[in-house]
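DUF2842 domain-containing protein: structure, please.
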Amino acid sequence: MALSYKARRRWSLVVLVIGLPLYIVACVTVMNWLGRPPILVELLVYIGLGVLWAFPLKMIFRGIGQADPDAPKEDAEPGEEA
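Here you go.
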């Protein structure tokens, strides 16, 4: 079942405002449990985890920055008088 444009916008906001900070805290906590690995390994783990969160949520964020495709289109072009 595909989500509507409005639902995807709402879920993307929830993910960015609530989910992403929780994910960051979880990643830092796990890295602290592992001790202090070499700096290059730590950097690679953080980069990997920083990209990893986006893959399962790709469909929610796709097209969010564009205009609503379900919105009614206006007949007049911008700058034209009716």
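Notes: Residues 41 and 82 are 63 Å apart (CA to CA).
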